[in-house]
Amino acid sequence: MINDDIKQAMRDKDTRKLAALRAIKAALLLEKTGKDVSSGEIPEAVEMKLLQKLVKTAARIGSGLCRTKQT
After folding, report:
1. Where on the phi/psi map is residue 13: left (φ > 0), alpha (ψ -120 to 50), or beta?
2. 66 with 57: CB under 8 angstroms?
3. Residue 9 and residue 21 in contact, taking contact as beta carbons nearer than 8 Å
4. Contact 21, 2 (CB under 8 A)
5. d(CA 61, CA 54)
6. N or C end of the chain: smaller count of CB under 10 Å?
7. Confidence class of residue 7 from pLDDT cuts 50, 70 and 90?
8. What is the mean pLDDT of the chain?
9. pLDDT attached to residue 35
10. What per-residue confidence (pLDDT) applies to 64?
11. In sequence order, which ranges of 1-71 are alpha helices (DSSP H)?
């Protein structure tokens, strides 16, 4: 489970992994509480699509394609 991985990342003091896992968990929780999921379970296809979206976003940030305002 993701919670076990989060705990292990905390123990290992792996901040990058911890941040990534927390972002994944938050996105899954938002999806789970959304109006499209009536049973409380997220279908595997929806989970995979969400994870692919997160990977694309992370890749854009890493490559500098996402620009943020700098003051």
Report:
1. left
2. yes
3. yes
4. yes
5. 11
6. C
7. very high
8. 82
9. 62
10. 62
11. 2-12, 15-32, 44-63
pLDDT in tens, 10-44: 999 999 999 989 999 999 888 888 766 566 688 88
What type of residue sits at position 12?
D
Q: Which residue has the tokens 């792996």?
A: 14
Half-sphere exposure (CA, 13 Å, Cβ side) for 23?
13
Q: Which residues of 11-37 are buried (b: 16+ CB within 10 A; e: fewer)?
A: eeeeeeebebbeebeebbeebeeeeee
The one-letter amino acid code at 63 reads S
Of the candidates 1, 29, 2, 42, the one whose C-alpha atom is nearest the C-alpha of residue 18 is: 2
What is the token pair recorded at 1? 């489970």
